[in-house]
């Protein structure tokens, strides 16, 4: 629930581009250009930590291209941006199309193709292609002017290229800005870790746990603090009727004003039970609960969360299987499509090996998500049955954190990716709750400022200290952007 499937790949290629002319560039001799910090260009041996050092060789002074004119730079940037646009379009559209085909199990139709090549895919491709063009143009222009290979060039170019986030609508800009910011913070964490300054054992797991606590609280009681698309995805996967969650949230808000004796809106609950197809037995249990408390609703009986199933045990057990089967096609598309596009030659050379790798990754990810959702619902049912007269508001925080430990089913690199994706969502919910209460001021265009600043940090490291970046992000960027 704390992880949107489409994000794992989409958020990893937001700022990607391609360098189709890399082989034609003329390398500069060491005497022709100076680096501000030669220690930045030393090639380090790869570490076993997949989130720090990479097995790719770091750029050296001999890799730096020599530009003869701004026109040459412009052509290089334009070609790189155009190819980045095409690849982003193919990856985003391909994943959308594959998920549609696998989940709905329909024959090929025009509507599916139109959806795959829709406005969302175009916006995403424009953002990626625009980023590639601006970064290559500015970074190489500064190199041509200053004759210096420095982090400052990458920082300035990254900040300007980060403004390409404006190609997306505001709601998505917030999500992208969050991811950019987290990637920059991750790079900083890796830098501290390599220098033995400050490390936190299992930091990715703990970060995910904290994220889940905040996200699940927002999901249950403050849905307006969760991004719309993300909340819709949570509703769909958790299989709890949205109307029931909204009624629960509204009732808990009333309890802040009138206490635990707040009268229950019985008629509204009855209408929702009928609308979602709730069983007569569950409706009778709910009405009996309200009657026992003289018309009040101090807690929330669990029949509200699964109105179609009268047995908590059967509901929680069958949910695991349903979620697992439902999510396998999604993870299959998210894992297989990018690998097919980016590692075509390797897959052709060793097809069996890659099929095994994909199957293993998809199975672990599906087990994680199925366990996460089932654990959460089981905890809600247990609390409602053990302490029926108590509001489960604060228990949701605790349960959300405990659910986060199911991330241990995932492979180590993916735990970091999940933490990087989920933490901004939890932070956003917490920020909006504080903003609604008047505890902090509202800052306009915060998403654009954060996105630009974060990309400034990331791109300053990309060329000279790429070993501090996320392994997955670096490998994708290196494969598509090249070095310059």
Element-level helix/strand string: HEEEHHHEHHHHHHHHHHHHHH
Could you tell me the number of beta strands?
4
Distance between the amino and carboxyl termini: 38 Å
Strand composition percent: under 5%
Tell me about the largest β-sheet.
2 strands, antiparallel
Arithmetic mean of pLDDT: 78
Radius of gyration: 25 Å
Structural class based on helices, strands and sheet pairing: mainly alpha
Share in helix: 55-70%
Q: Ranges with pLDDT <50 over ≥5 residues?
A: 2-57
| Widest β-sheet, arrangement of strands | 1-3
**Overall geometry:** elongated
Count helical runs.
18
Polypeptide structure, described:
The chain has 484 residues and is an all-alpha fold. Helices cover 65% and strands 2% of the residues. It has helices at residues 7-10, 70-104, 110-116, 119-146, 151-161, 170-194, 203-221, 228-238, 242-258, 266-275, 280-292, 312-342, 344-349, 351-386, 393-403, 412-436, 446-462, 471-481; strands at residues 26-27, 34-35, 65-66, 148-149. The protein is elongated and about 85 Å long. The chain starts with 6 loop residues before the first helix and ends with a helix. Mean pLDDT is 78; it is low at 2-57.
């Amino acid at each position: 629930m704390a992880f949107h499937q489409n994000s794992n790949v989409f958020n990893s290629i937001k700022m990607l581009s391609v360098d189709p002319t890399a082989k034609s560039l003329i390398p500069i001799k060491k005497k022709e250009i100076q680096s501000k910090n030669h220690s930045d260009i030393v090639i380090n041996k790869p570490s076993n930590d997949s989130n720090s050092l990479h097995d790719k060789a770091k750029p050296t002074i001999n890799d730096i291209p020599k530009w003869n004119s701004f026109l040459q730079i412009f052509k290089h940037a334009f070609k790189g941006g155009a190819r980045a646009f095409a690849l982003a379009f193919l990856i985003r559209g391909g994943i959308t199309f594959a998920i549609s085909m696998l989940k709905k199990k329909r024959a090929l139709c025009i509507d599916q193709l139109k959806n795959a090549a829709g406005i969302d895919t175009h916006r995403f491709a424009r953002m990626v292609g625009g980023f590639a063009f601006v970064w290559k143009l500015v970074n190489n222009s500064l190199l041509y002017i200053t004759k210096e290979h420095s982090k400052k060039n990458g920082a300035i170019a990254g900040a300007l290229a980060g403004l390409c986030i404006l190609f997306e609508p505001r709601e998505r800009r917030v999500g992208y800005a969050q991811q950019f910011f987290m990637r920059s913070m991750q790079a900083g964490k890796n830098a501290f870790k390599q220098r033995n300054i400050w490390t936190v054992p299992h930091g990715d797991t703990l970060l995910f746990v904290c994220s889940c606590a905040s996200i699940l609280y927002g999901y249950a009681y403050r849905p307006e603090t969760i991004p719309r698309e993300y909340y819709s995805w949570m509703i769909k996967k958790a299989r709890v009727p949205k109307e029931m969650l909204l009624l629960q949230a509204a009732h808990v808000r009333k309890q802040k004003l009138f206490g635990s004796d707040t009268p229950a809106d019985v008629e509204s609950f009855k209408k929702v039970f009928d609308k979602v197809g709730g069983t007569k037995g569950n409706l009778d249990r709910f009405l009996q609960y309200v009657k026992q408390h003289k018309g009040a609703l101090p807690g929330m009986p669990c029949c509200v969360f699964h109105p179609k199933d009268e047995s908590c045990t059967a509901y929680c057990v069958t949910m695991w299987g349903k979620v697992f089967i439902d999510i396998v096609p999604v993870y299959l598309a998210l894992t297989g499509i990018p690998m097919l596009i980016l590692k075509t030659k390797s897959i052709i050379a060793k097809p069996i090996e890659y099929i095994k790798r994909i199957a293993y990754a998809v199975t672990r990810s599906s087990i994680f998500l199925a366990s996460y959702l089932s654990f959460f619902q089981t905890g809600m049912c247990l609390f409602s049955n053990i302490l029926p007269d108590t509001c489960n508001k604060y228990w949701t925080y605790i349960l959300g954190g405990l659910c986060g430990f199911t991330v241990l089913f995932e492979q180590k690199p993916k735990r970091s990716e999940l933490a990087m994706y989920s933490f901004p969502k939890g932070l956003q919910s917490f920020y909006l709750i504080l903003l609604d209460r008047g505890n902090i001021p509202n800052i306009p265009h915060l998403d654009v400022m954060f996105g630009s600043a974060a990309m400034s940090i990331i791109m300053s490291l990309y060329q000279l200290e790429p070993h501090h970046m996320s392994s997955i992000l670096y490998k994708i960027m290196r494969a598509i952007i090249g070095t310059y």
